[in-house]
Amino acid sequence: xxxxxxxxxxxxxxxxxxxxxxxxxxxxxxxxxxxxxxxxxxxxxxxxxxxxxxxxxxxxxxxxxxxxxxxxxxxxxxxxxxxxxxxxxxxxxxxxxxxxxxxxxxxxxxxxxxxxxxxxxxxxxxxxxxxxxxxxxxxxxxxxxxxxxxxxxxxxxxxxxxxxxxxxxxxxxxxxxxxxxxxxxxxxxxxxxxxxxxxxxxxxxxxxxxxxxxxxxxxxxxxxxxxxxxxxxxxxxxxxxxxxxxxxxxxxxxxxxxxxxxxxxxxxxxxxxxxxxxxxxxxxxxxxxxxxxxxxxxxxxxxxxxxxxxxxxxxxxxxxxxxxxxxxxxxxxxxxxxxxxxxxxxxxxxxxxxxxxxxxxx
Length: 362
Fold this sequence. Notes:
By secondary structure, the chain is of the alpha+beta class. The protein is built from nine helices and 17 strands. Helices cover 27% and strands 26% of the residues. Helix 7 links the parallel strand 14 (265-268) and strand 15. The chain is globular, with a radius of gyration of 21 Å. 45% of the residues are buried.
């Protein structure tokens, strides 16, 4: 399967639509509808749950179940306090970065529709150059052009409204995808492409495949915790993003050595089942798929942890997409890495036999 045939015009159009749609933690359903609509021709049925996780199922009657998973939510803000003169202070919904906020446009989601605003910041002329105040959660604020609190509320903005950045999808230098929320809308895209390729290549799997787009990962793996109890899988292959550590101000001795354009990143961690990971590495080597390695300590910080420690223990592995500038509005990945993650998941699935336990004691 040549990499130049993986991302086609239709799938790229889906990716752009999917990325440009806001999907903040706790409000993922519109993005999930786009994702499910794209997958409809390639799967047998869908499962959804109370909080919005969506699962596309292939061969649902099979007893042996394999999950491939990404998460659908993006970081955002909540309206937390409205001043008498109409300025808005925020709290995080996920790991939103306060340092990038000043001078950014925002969309405030209300029952009346989107209200535009900006994160204001004092002009350079007015700041004390001897002790400049850095951006922090306590001093960043949003201005929606209202004269007072009453006008803010009349526009439909209230405490609890969720706030996202409107930054749209771009392709930089022909092969770099740039957008907010590549973490981890790219995961949802990549597992969808695996399902499409299985269908188009007429591959019959000897197990049920549960293509899972979980919610609420950004606030503690909550969607994966819920859906794994519903599916009760035997195997889970999770995909998320990981840091490209080649850009300035990142310590490779602490964060490891990974770069965009060098292939998927295969993780080593207690939650990663060793025999399943080695199967993935053997597959990469056999199919000549470039890959990188990453060691985590007590946990991976991804939905892998939720699947691995559920249902008495599920053989789980993590294949990550290297990404620059995580949790900013200019997250960046390499097109070849995206295609190679898709290839590695696809080929790894074809290597799994019905009923495999990946037991250390067989």
